[in-house]
Amino acid sequence: MELRDIEIFLTLAEELHFGRTAERLHLTTARVSQSIKKQERVIGGPLFDRTSRAVSLTSLGKLLRDDLLPAHRQIQRAVDRAAAEARGITGTVRVGYTTPWCADLALQAGRAFSDRYAGCTVLVQEVQFKDMLGPLRRGELDLQLSELPARSPGIADGPVLFREPRALMVPAGHLLARRDSVSLEDLAGVPLIRSDGGLPESLIDLHIPVRTPMGLPIPDGPAYTFWPEIPALVAAGLGASIVAARAARYHARPGIAFVPFRDGPTLDYGVLRLASGQTPPAAAFVELLADLAS
Question: Which fold has domain 91-163+269-293?
Fold first, then answer.
């Protein structure tokens, strides 16, 4: 069996779908089918059961898959290490994040990156909103997973990795907490908790607007220094905060409720980096992040 045929077999064993296998390997469905038939002739038995509705591995196919996978992974790691060395992908990639869902993606990518590029180490750390762009500017980080857009001199952003619907975090006893959804116009009746500095202006407009789309003023709530203060302030009935909808899964606690917005833009999350350029390891890490996010 040639290496390409092994790759086709293992991909089909994972996908169990000829069309998806062809798309993933940038081949035609006919090429995938021909390769599998050739392998079955060489081995002398069927590797897959095929019907009009489903594809499944035979017992012979499962045996071959289990025997081939470790060797194929070892070959792929050897190729990746050689390619990494040729591209200068060695050393340490320092990655920051501002939300727990960005942390999840950064840590997942870090594990995959270290496995793919044995000569690289990935360090992941939290960045506080009070000094959101400071670690990047000071060269303490190579890149950062954060809210976009973060327009600021010397900082480049993109790609966008995922887009989140917004929600309003309100005190559980507030009238808005009883609704199925809220509008941006409803913000005229609730004070928003403010940042005491550190956020780029482009993000302040998204997170802490001062007027509704119709021009009504939005009251000011208390200011926070670190984000964990916000749920406590909301639970105390001192204000509300615009958050990503998935914050309900990460920050639920007594005294607060999360109500989705039915209008307004999404909250976008992606990569921030210095506009002056990035190292080969950092560029490769961004490519991996985009693959995982998609």
Answer: D-Maltodextrin-Binding Protein; domain 2 (3.40.190)
> Before 149, cis peptide (omega within 30)?
yes
CA angle 270, 294, 84 (to 5 degrees): 80
Q: For residues 159 and 126, what is the distance between their CA atoms, to the nearest angstrom?
A: 20
pTM of the full structure: 0.70
| Rg of the chain taking only CA atoms, in angstroms | 25
pLDDT at 294 over 90: no
Strand partners, 71: none
pLDDT band at 74 (very low <50, low <70, confident <90, very high): confident
Q: The domain 3-87: what is its CATH number?
A: 1.10.10.10
HSE-up of 253 (CA within 13 Å, CB side)?
Answer: 15
Polymer length of the chain: 294
β-strands 166-171, 192-195 pairing: unpaired
242-265 confidence digits (pLDDT tens): 999 999 999 999 999 999 999 989
Q: Which residues pair with 35 in a beta bridge?
A: none
Pull the structure tokens for residue 41.
Answer: 């002739």
Structure tokens at 43: 């081995």
Do the beta carbons of residue 210 and residue 227 sit within 8 Å?
no
